[in-house]
């Protein structure tokens, strides 16, 4: 398969993608390899896509999100996907300013999507049967004004019937799926049936595995500050079966509070960035439990050793806690200077070396472990 991307034997520094385009090319290859998208993107198509989207101003993206260019380059990964938003139009959305919040989030996502794809994105609702295709930022307000916010929250069934089956499985089965699909669900509450949602996501996971590609990626984000919705998202994030194929983002207000407790600052722009990239870029997955300020620093993003170690710890804690302990032992030998937080987490991990429920243990230590490793590698 000579047209499959292999970083080891493809030199991106060619005339067609030299200069700034080389950064874009490398970022696309990074995303393709992380998500097993090679069947969608042979080398020639990646080069062509690089040429198309390199015209998108990195400076404009940096200014729009108030982030560094090193972080803004991550947004180019979205060009690999067809973006579908599943928006909650249940009656509870009329509470407080949730509709306005929804509109602002959808508009921001549409603005980014339309920069990389002239077809924009697709907007679906839980109760209203309307499907708005080729949506751009300027169209969002009009599209939402036509929706009557009422009804319940059937996330599982709608996700399966309106998105997963017709837009992913059917198209893929007939050879018509040109791009993988990134599904972003925006909701203010828990679904009518958690079991139905889990069943749908399990079907998506099984389909991805059967194709060898991540045909569909899933992000769930909270609108409003309802504690029930937040608990639902947390449960989804650590679910033993499908937790590893979804990314979840609590509302900005709730995450801002958590960041403040950790001594970090979260901006609305970084919250949106995490929401858009969390399901497709492992650097942003679980970023709500890392210090986003650390993640945003070029010194971190440009240090391959740091990135690899942080991501490997995430994987280790999901699969083998003993490996984490062994790595921390090695790190302590290499960094003998006192580090109180390192010792605290190390002792806690030792105490729970063979936990009866690793999934329950993971969230408790995830943030501290990430933060300590970042500190040690500075």
TrEMBL record:
SUPFAM superfamilies: vWA-like. SMART domains: VWA (SM00327). InterPro entries: vWA_TerF_C (IPR019303), VWF_A (IPR002035), vWFA_dom_sf (IPR036465). PROSITE patterns: VWFA. Residues 82-276 form the VWFA domain. Pfam families: vWA-TerF-like. This is VWFA domain-containing protein. It comes from Tetrabaena socialis.
């Amino acid at each position: 398969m000579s047209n499959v991307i292999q970083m080891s034997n493809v030199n991106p520094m060619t005339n067609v993608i030299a200069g700034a385009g080389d950064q874009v090319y490398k970022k696309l290859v990074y995303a393709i390899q992380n998500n097993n998208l090679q069947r969608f993107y042979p080398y020639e198509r990646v080069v062509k896509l690089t040429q198309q989207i390199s015209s998108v101003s990195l400076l404009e993206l940096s200014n729009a999100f108030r982030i560094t260019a090193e972080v803004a380059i991550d947004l180019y990964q979205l060009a690999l996907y067809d973006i579908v938003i599943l928006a909650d139009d249940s009656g509870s959305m009329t509470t407080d300013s949730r509709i306005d919040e929804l509109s602002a989030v959808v508009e921001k996502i549409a603005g980014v999507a339309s920069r990389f794809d002239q077809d924009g994105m697709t907007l679906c609702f839980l109760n209203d049967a309307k499907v708005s295709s080729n949506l751009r930022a300027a169209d969002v307000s009009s599209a939402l004004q036509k929706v009557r916010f009422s009804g319940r929250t059937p996330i599982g069934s709608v996700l399966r019937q309106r998105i997963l089956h017709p837009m992913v499985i059917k198209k893929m089965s007939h050879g018509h799926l040109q791009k993988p699909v990134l599904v972003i669900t925006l909701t203010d509450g828990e679904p009518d049936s958690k079991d139905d949602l889990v069943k749908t996501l399990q079907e998506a996971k099984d389909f991805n595995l059967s194709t060898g590609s991540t045909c569909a990626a899933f992000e769930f984000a909270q609108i409003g500050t309802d504690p029930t919705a937040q608990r639902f998202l947390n449960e989804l994030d650590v679910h033993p079966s499908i937790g590893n194929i979804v990314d979840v983002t609590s509302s900005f207000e709730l995450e801002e509070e958590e960041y403040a407790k950790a001594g970090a600052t979260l901006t609305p722009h970084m919250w949106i960035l995490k929401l858009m990239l969390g399901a497709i870029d492992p650097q942003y997955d679980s970023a709500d439990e890392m210090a986003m300020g650390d993640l945003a620093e070029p010194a971190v993003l440009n240090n391959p050793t740091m990135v690899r170690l942080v991501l490997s710890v995430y994987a280790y804690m999901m699969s083998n806690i003993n490996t984490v302990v062994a790595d921390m032992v090695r790190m302590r030998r290499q960094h003998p200077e006192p580090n109180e937080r390192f010792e605290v987490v190390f002792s806690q991990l030792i105490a729970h070396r063979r936990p009866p429920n690793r999934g329950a243990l993971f969230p408790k230590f995830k943030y501290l472990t990430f933060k300590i490793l970042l500190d040690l590698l500075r």
